[in-house]
Amino acid sequence: MSEKLQKVLARAGHGSRREMEAWIAAGRVSVDGEIASLGDRVEADAKIRIDGRAISMKSADDMICRILAYHKPEGEICSRKDPEGRPTVFDRLPKIRDGRWVAVGRLDINTSGLLLFTCDGELANRLMHPSNEVEREYAVRTFGEVSEATVQRLRNGVMLEDGPAQFDHVKAAGGEGLNQWWHVGLREGRNREVRRLWESQEVQVSRLIRIRYGMIELPKTLPRGGWMELPLEQVNYLRQMAGMDAETRSMLGADKHSVARAKVRSAKIRRAVHKHKVVSGKPKPSRQRS
Predict the structure, then answer these.
(1) Is 67-129+216-289 assigned to CATH 3.40.720.10?
(2) Are 15 and 5 in contact (CB under 8 A)?
(3) Distance CA 54, CA 94 (A)
């Protein structure tokens, strides 16, 4: 049975469906020796190349859906490459064969916290679609006085330059003096929306950390710059949210070999975090194989 080319490429982990559509439109993809066009459908035995490089295609049955939780530090950008040479969120992720990690959404350079990655570009595409309205929760540290009237306006909605916006909830979370912490929830993913909502009330945001995506929380034991693979239960929670069939396999397990692999992964994470710390000059990215 034939499938749309961009869906096949996304499922294989080469990028989100939107990215694949852009690659096809740019003439970077060929099928059986011919430059592909948007809307092309391919059979399972098609010979596909990206930028002239043959790629291995897997059927849906051959793919194991994997999802990583990454604790993004401030100072990293959500791009694969940066002309200015700044570190990216992909630098410390483990390598995967016949595919690559696709970020589920973005966090700006000054925001830290939970960022999800998957090898299934179709899953990433669906989770990022506005119709899913996945709630993200952020810990926000503000500087300055915040009145109850300000909090009510942020709950009820304010007008930003790109339309009305509001928090699903705003809860005080402690602090000292003019530095106060808040937990806020948001179902949209507009650029810098959390910061812009506070700034619309002339409140300065000094720290911003994403602590939850849907029901997936940032693990308290995960260091900044560290990653961990989500268990099957959480993978299927996200797949169900995206309207996709449940995954039955996982790279994680309870046998002694899986426990040993988990210890190796933990050691890799510690090394990656250590190597990526800025000692002097530009930090050097570290990559591991998984």
Answers:
(1) no
(2) no
(3) 22
Enumerate residues 6+ apart whose C-beta is below 8 A from 239: 65, 123, 245, 246, 247
Same fold, 67-129+216-289 and 135-213: yes
Task: Please compute, for residue 128, the number of CA atoms within 13 A of its CA located in the half-sphere on the CB side.
Answer: 22
From the candidates 108, 120, 162, 255, which is the catalytic residue? 108
Domain ranges of the chain: 3-54, 67-129+216-289, 135-213
Q: pLDDT digits over 249-286, tens only?
A: 888 864 334 444 544 555 555 555 565 554 434 444 44
| pTM for the predicted model, two decimal places | 0.75
The DSSP line for 33-102 is: TEE--TT-EE-TT--EEETTEE-----TTT----EEEEEEPTT-BSSS--TT---BTTTTSEE-TTS--E
Gap between the Cα atoms of 30 and 46, Å rounded: 10
Q: Is 108 a catalytic residue?
A: yes
3-state SS of 100-154 is CCEEECCCCCCCEEEEEEECCHHHHHHHHCHHHCCCEEEEEEEECCCCHHHHHHH
32-85 pLDDT per residue, tens: 999 999 989 998 888 999 999 888 776 666 678 999 999 999 999 998 888 898
Query: What architecture does CATH give domain 3-54?
Result: Roll (3.10)
Q: Identify the CATH number of the domain defined by range 135-213.
A: 3.30.2350.10
What's the rounded Cα separation, in Å, for the pair 196 and 200? 6
